[in-house]
């Protein structure tokens, strides 16, 4: 069985027979998935500054990386002696870990989308505040519609705060359950 390596620059997967290997004078091995990664690494570029790398996504909080679930994915250089019970428990545990990982990633994605929605509503409110003179020149019916829309936005913001609080409480409960 051949293992899938990780790129030393972008952190992406390198499948068997793909990518390049660079070995430094001190015998440190660097693997690159594509020439773009190798060239940037040779130029001593920082992977956290490129938005397409895993390091950038981790640094900006876009990917869930600081989690105990990812600690299970460790490299084992020595083969383990085959044991039927061990294989069965390992497979069961792998399924369980996968389910936990999916739930946590989904919760992380929902938190990110909530903050994005809050930013979007704030931008809309700012736009309304900047162009309020356009709204004051419209007839009374449309002005009432604008006021209703602003009230809906306020209600939506309040609902987002409550949902965010509930989600954070659920996340804390999940963390404490471990």
Automatic annotation (TrEMBL):
Domain (TRASH) ranges: 7-45
GO biological process terms, semicolon-separated: ribosomal large subunit biogenesis
Q: Which top-rank group of organisms is this from?
A: Eukaryota
By its UniProt entry, which Pfam families does this protein fall under? Ribosomal_L24e
Q: Mind listing the UniProt keywords for this protein, alphabetically?
A: Nucleus, Ribonucleoprotein, Ribosomal protein, Ribosome biogenesis
Ribonucleoprotein listed as a keyword: yes
The entry's cellular-component GO terms read: nucleolus; ribosome
Query: Which GO molecular function annotations are given, in alphabetical order?
Result: structural constituent of ribosome
Q: Where in the cell is it found?
A: Nucleus
| PANTHER family in the record | 60S RIBOSOMAL PROTEIN L24, RIBOSOME BIOGENESIS PROTEIN RLP24-RELATED
Q: Which family does it belong to?
A: Belongs to the eukaryotic ribosomal protein eL24 family.
Q: Tell me what this protein is called.
A: Ribosomal protein L24e, putative
Per the UniProt record, the lineage of the source organism begins with: Eukaryota, Metamonada, Parabasalia, Trichomonadida, Trichomonadidae
């Amino acid at each position: 069985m051949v293992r899938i390596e990780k790129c030393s620059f972008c952190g992406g997967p390198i499948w068997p027979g793909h990518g390049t290997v660079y070995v430094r004078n001190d015998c440190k091995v660097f693997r690159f998935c594509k020439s773009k990664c190798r060239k940037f690494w040779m130029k001593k570029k920082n992977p956290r500054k490129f938005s397409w790398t895993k390091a950038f996504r981790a640094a900006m909080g876009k990917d869930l990386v600081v989690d105990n679930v990812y600690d299970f994915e460790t490299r084992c250089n020595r083969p383990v002696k085959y044991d039927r019970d061990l294989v069965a428990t390992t497979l069961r545990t792998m399924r369980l870990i996968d389910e936990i990982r999916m739930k946590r990633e989904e919760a992380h994605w929902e938190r990110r989308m909530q903050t994005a929605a809050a930013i979007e509503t704030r931008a809309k409110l700012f736009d309304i505040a900047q162009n309020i003179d356009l709204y004051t020149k419209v007839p009374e019916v449309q002005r009432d519609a604008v006021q209703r829309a602003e009230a809906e936005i306020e209600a939506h913001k309040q609902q987002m705060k409550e949902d965010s609080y509930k989600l954070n409480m659920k996340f804390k409960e999940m963390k404490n359950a471990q």
